[in-house]
């Protein structure tokens, strides 16, 4: 990845792309449905990526990656196909094409960099937006009142070979998972938490810290599911969710009662994840 990307300061998606391409190498073809990275890469005919890049429609991350994979097979060529999409193009608009592709077990890696809203078009709520969060379409007096969609479990339910979570705060873990995914035949899905300072109302220099706090608070646990087997990669001493929430203006309106509710939900989800790990071994 060349310097000169036009991302916001502290953009988690930019760091995530850098780590992912470091893991996958130059023999990679990137499929890029509409998202922040459609802008970050630079205006046509320029690109900050040193690999082939297809800009595609919002909903087509899974279908275009399937087509590129088929073309490589027909030509007898080898390359890693990477579909790179935000949460809007994955959880919502692109879910149909993604579901169809992974149900066929197409041989590509799909990375969702999740900044938990439609950040590129004005910070609108998506189904990846967590409960209690402010967005421009869920203002403080009417904040997001539905829980975040569990996209990882949706992918696991498709029985694909490999699904994993990662963050930019633990680059060794992220790179290891991408290298593993590269060697597995079939559909692979990687979910990367990706802070957006403007959308999260957070300081740009705190993006890495925020993803670390998310893991430590167990809001975003790091785990992988390989052929149905769960492995929790980090079981760190838990911090309270309020330590993560108070660093972001999008949660500044929450009451103590709201924060307690979030803590209870996080603890419940963590216990379920540990049970899945125990039952799948």
If you had to describe this structure to a student in words, what would you say it looks like?
Helix content is 40%, strand content 15%. The chain is globular, with a radius of gyration of 18 Å. It starts with 11 loop residues before the first helix and ends with a helix. Strands 2-1-3-4-6-5-7-8 form an eight-stranded mixed beta sheet, with helices on both faces. It has helices at residues 12-24, 36-40, 61-75, 88-92, 95-103, 151-157, 171-183, 197-200, 207-216, 241-245, 256-280, and strands at residues 28-33, 53-56, 80-86, 109-114, 162-167, 188-193, 223-226, 229-232. It has 281 residues and is of the alpha/beta class. Strand 7 and strand 8 form a beta hairpin. The chain has one domain: Thiamin diphosphate (ThDP)-binding fold, Pyr/PP domains (Rossmann fold). Helix 1 (12-24) crosses helix 7 (171-183) and helix 3 packs parallel to helix 5 (95-103). It contains eleven helices and eight strands.
Keywords:
alpha/beta; 40% helix; eight-stranded mixed beta sheet; single chain; 281 residues; 8 strands; globular; Rossmann fold
Total number of β-strand segments? 8
Distance N to C terminus: 39 Å
Share of residues in strands: 15-25%
Compute the CA-based radius of gyration.
18 Å
Q: For this entry, what is the oligomeric state of its chains?
A: single chain
| CATH superfamily (homologous) name | Thiamin diphosphate (ThDP)-binding fold, Pyr/PP domains
> Structural class, from helix and strand content?
alpha/beta
CATH architecture assignment:
3-Layer(aba) Sandwich
CATH class: Alpha Beta
- Percent helix, as a range, is 25-40%
Uncertain segments:
none
Overall tally of structural domains: 1
